[in-house]
Amino acid sequence: MQCLRLRFRGILPRLVPIRYYAKKTDIPEDVMEEMEEGFINLCNSDSPSLLRKYLTRDLFDELKVKTTPTYKSNLLDCVRSGMYNFNSNVGIYAADPESYKTFAKLFDPIIEEYHGFKQGDKHPASCFGYGSDFPDLDPERKFILSTRIRCARSLDGFPFNPMLTHCDYAQLQTTICRAFDRLCGEFSGKYFAVCNMKEKVKEKLIADHYMFREDDPFLEQGMAFRYWPLGRGIFMNRQKTFIVWVNEEDHVRIISMEKGGDLGRVYERMIIGVESLAHEMKFAHDPHLGHINFCPTNLGTSIRASVHIKLPSISSEATVVDVAEKYSLQVRGTRGENSSPDNGIYDISNKRRMGVTEYQIITEMYNGIKAIIETECQAAMDMERIMKATAKDNMVLKGEEMQKIKRVDKCSPKKKPGDKKNRR
After folding, report:
1. Is 334 one of the annotated binding-site residues?
2. 116, 178, 240, 421 — which has fewest CB within 10 A?
3. Confidence (pTM)
4. Is 213 annotated as a binding residue?
5. Side by side, which strands form the sheet with 329-332?
6. Choosing from 67, 68, 297, 301, which is the catalytic residue?
7. Which stretches of 174-325 are assigned E, i.e. beta strand?
8. Residue 353, marked binder
9. Averaged over 107-132, what is the pLDDT?
C-alpha cells in the first residue's frame, strides 16, 4: 500500500494510506498525495498564514475527502496557493461558491480572524446611500492626489478560477461584454481583450495603473491564470474614470477613480456602475457572507476605498496610523502592502468590508480622511510657529552677539597713527 510518512512539529510519525482515502472519494490518488505532501510541508514551515494556523491534522483529515456538490472542488483546489507560498498571509481561495460551506470549518475561523466577522453574524443588505452626502474634502487639491473605489463581483452560476473551463472563461467574457454594450452616457466605453492587445498598449496601461498583470505568485498557484489570456480583458469609459477588470482574480472588478479628493463623486459613479451591471447580470450573493468572491478577504461589501494623500508636515507615520485606526482605516505606502510612504505620500484605505454596509464604509473613510487632513493642517501650523519662533530667537541671539561685539570694540584701546607698531 502506498503511504506517506509524516513528520512535523508535535506529532508522532504515522502512516497515512493514500489509496484508502482516494477510494472513499472521487478525488484522484495523485491529488490526494499532493495534498498530503503539501500539508506536511506547510506544517514544517514557519508560514505566518491563517491557513497554517487553522488547518490542523484532524481538520485536514476530515476535509481532504470532501468535494463540493456541484463543481466537485476538493480541498487542494482551495489551499494549493498557501501550500506553495509560505509567505502568504491568508493562504486560501474558494474554488467555487459552495467551498465556503463544504469547507466551512476552515473558512469560518479564517474569515472571523481577518474580518472580525463571527460565524453567527449576518452580513447586512447592501445600502449604498448617496455620494452627494460627501462633499469634496480637498477642493484646492493641496493634499489628496487621487481617489479610487473598487468592488468585486462574481456571476451567479459559475465557479471560480480553479474550476473554470476553457468554455467558462469565453462564456463569462461574452456575458459581461454584452452588459458593457448597454452602458450609456458617462459609462459608455470600450472593451480591450488581453488576447488581442498589443504589448506596448498593455504595458502603457499597466504603467498608468489601469491594467492588471499576470505575475502574482499567489494567484498563479491558486490556479487563477489557467487558459491565460482567454477571457481576460479591461473595459474603460472615455474619461478612464470607470474601469472594469474581467476575469483577473474575480469575474469582475469594478473600479471608479479620478484625480483629486472628491470621494462623493467617485462613490456615486461606482454606485451607478455597479447597479447598471447588476441590472444586466445576476451576481453571486450569500445571506451570511454577502457578496461571494474568489478570496475570503473580498467578501461582504468587497469594497476597497483608497486615497493617495500627501502629508508633508506630519513627521511620524505613527501619527497618521493613530488617527486612521480611530476610523478603521489602513495606512501603507503607495507601492502596496508593507511598503513605506514615499516623500510623505500615503495610501489610506478602509479595513472593514464585512458586517457593515457600503454607506458605513464610505462614511468612516470620509470622516477619517477629514481628520487626517486636519491633523496635517495642525502640524503645518505648529511647524510654522516653531520656524517663526526659531527665526525670532536667532534674531535675538544675533542682536545680543552684535551688542557684545560693540562692547568689546569700545573697551579695546585704539591704535594711534604714531605708534611704532604701526610704522613700516
Report:
1. yes
2. 421
3. 0.85
4. no
5. 189-193, 233-237, 242-246, 252-259, 144-153, 304-310, 345-350, 329-332
6. 297
7. 189-193, 233-237, 242-246, 252-259, 285-286, 290-291, 304-310
8. no
9. 96
Q: Which CATH class is domain 3-115?
A: mainly alpha
Whether 337 is catalytic is yes
Q: pLDDT tens digit string along 311-357?
A: 998 878 899 999 999 999 999 988 766 667 778 899 999 999 999 99
Nine cell digits for residue 301: 461589501
The answer to whether 424 is a known catalytic residue is no
Q: Give the active site residue among 304, 352, 353, 364.
A: 304
Most confidently modeled range among 73-77, 201-205, 396-400:
73-77
* Residue the block writes with cell 491594467: 211
292 assigned ligand-binding residue: no
Respond yes or no: is residue 249 known to be catalytic. Answer: yes
Active site residue: 52, 150, 269, 352, which one?
150
Which member of 184, 337, 411, 423 is catalytic? Answer: 337
Clarify whether 195 is annotated catalytic. no
Q: Among all chains, which residue has been given the C-alpha cell 474580518?
A: 115
Identify the burial level of 280 via C-beta atoms within 10 angstroms of its C-beta, where 0-12 means exposed, 13-18 middle and 19 or more buried: middle
Report whether 199 belongs to an annotated binding site: no
Domains 3-115 and 131-377 share a fold: no
Q: Among 52, 80, 232, 253, which one carries the catalytic annotation?
A: 253
Contact 82, 47 (CB under 8 A): yes
* Cell representation of residue 354: 464585512
Catalytic annotation present for 186? no
- The CA distance from 244 to 393, in Å, is 58
Cα 352 from Cα 337, distance rounded (Å): 16
Report pLDDT for 400. Answer: 61
**Residues whose CB falls within 8 Å of the CB of residue 170, separated by 6 or more in sequence, listed in order:** 230, 231
The annotation status of 238 as a binding-site residue, yes or no, is no
Question: Domain residue spans in the chain?
Answer: 3-115, 131-377
**Does the annotation flag 209 for ligand binding?**
yes
214 belongs to the catalytic site: no
Per-residue model confidence (pLDDT) at position 424: 43
